[in-house]
Design brief:
Layout (H helix, E strand, L loop, with lengths): L21 E2 L2 E2 H18 L5 H31 L6 H20 L10 H20 L3 H7 L12 E4 L5 E7 L4 H16 L4 E7 L8 H12 L4 H10 L3 H4 L4 H7 L4 H8 L2 H16 L9 E4 L2 E2 L6 H16 L1
Parallel strand pairs: 4-5
Antiparallel strand pairs: 1-2, 3-5, 4-6, 6-7
Helix pairs in contact: 1-2, 2-3, 7-8, 7-11
């Protein structure tokens, strides 16, 4: 599951907790940043202060560690129980907070002594210097190289097309019906198509993640609905309440009935070789593209992987650039 964690915090499910509360008018994001900054400073300076000073500083440090651990546990439980995905930063922060908490418990919360030999102090100092150097001398050009990817040839085959089939710009999305990031992307796709009704089409391809046991079947149901011209309605309905799939993988049958579909045909199409071959083809297409990370949703604009912020503005900047190429 770790290779599916999101690198982009703002696109992760944990972003739902951002700005969830304020203290003295300050967002919890900035409170968290201040918390870890103060904790780091206190932990580092305690190596060089007298025992008298450490008797005051270390209890404060310990309290900050305990608070950070409790908040990390709350955040992870909130996201896991809510079946919301989380990004790498949340996961690694929780691991670090847990290690620090265990260390405090092992050493004793009331323990205010710091006995560190000179070589260890030098190691801490060198580590801090390396981190600062990496921040100062980080070359953003490397990130730009990642964006300038080669165009990948992705045949549409029989995949679903939303929008104008003859549009100049093609966005390909690989999706999973059980993943919260993909559910969040539905409104993004709708907004893009509303903004570019004639110039953009979105090709929907499926890549159900291995740990989402009902996602493949949900994709079968969606494609079966497409056989009666109701893909978009099924697609929206499943993503609107995708958590139901975990307890009832055949819940889309109820959606099909509400859409007035011919149920005999729907069930027959659901189990057809045609749909299974299409899904397997899309899964293999994804794997053969050799992405650095097998995570979804995966967007490609004109065959180039999109690595930016998932919002209309970011997509529009690229779409507008692509459209200009057609006028030159």
């Amino acid at each position: 599951m770790l290779n599916s964690l999101e690198l982009d915090c703002s696109s992760g499910g944990c972003s739902t907790v951002f700005n969830s509360f304020y203290l003295f008018g300050i967002s919890n994001i900035y409170i968290g940043m201040a918390h870890y900054t103060i904790l780091s400073v206190l932990s580092f300076t305690s190596l060089y202060l007298s025992d008298k000073m450490n008797k005051r500083i270390i209890p404060i440090r310990n309290i900050l560690i305990i608070v950070g651990f409790l908040y990390s546990i709350f955040l992870m439980l909130y996201l896991i129980l809510g079946e919301i995905g989380f990004c790498e930063l949340c996961f690694y922060s929780a691991c670090i907070s847990t290690i620090l908490f265990i260390s405090v418990i092992k050493l004793g919360i009331q323990n205010t002594s710091v006995n560190v030999e000179a070589p260890i102090k030098h190691l801490y100092t060198i580590s801090i210097a390396i981190i600062i150097s990496l921040i100062i001398f980080h070359n953003p050009v490397e990130d730009n190289k990642k964006i300038a990817l080669k165009t990948k040839d992705i045949p549409i085959t029989e995949s679903i097309i939303l929008g104008n089939p003859n549009a100049k710009v093609t966005i390909t999305e690989f999706t999973d019906f059980q993943w919260p990031y993909c559910a969040k992307s539905v409104s993004l796709v709708d907004s893009i198509l509303n903004k570019y009704p004639n110039d953009v089409k979105v090709v929907i391809k499926n890549f159900p993640l291995s740990f989402h046991k009902q996602a493949y079947k949900a994709a079968q149901y969606a494609l079966a609905a497409n056989e009666q011209g109701k893909y978009k309605e099924m697609y929206h309905a499943i993503f609107a309440d995708y958590k139901k799939l975990k307890s009832n993988e055949d819940w889309p049958l109820e959606i099909a009935q509400s859409l007035g579909l011919d149920m005999n045909k729907f069930v027959k199409d659901f189990g057809s070789d045609k749909i299974k071959k299409q899904l397997d083809l899309e899964i293999n297409q994804f794997k053969n593209l050799n992405f650095e990370r097998e995570s979804v949703p995966k967007f490609l604009i004109q065959g180039k992987e999109f690595l930016g912020q998932r919002d209309v503005k970011s997509f529009s900047n690229i779409i507008d650039t692509e459209l200009k190429l057609f006028t030159q």
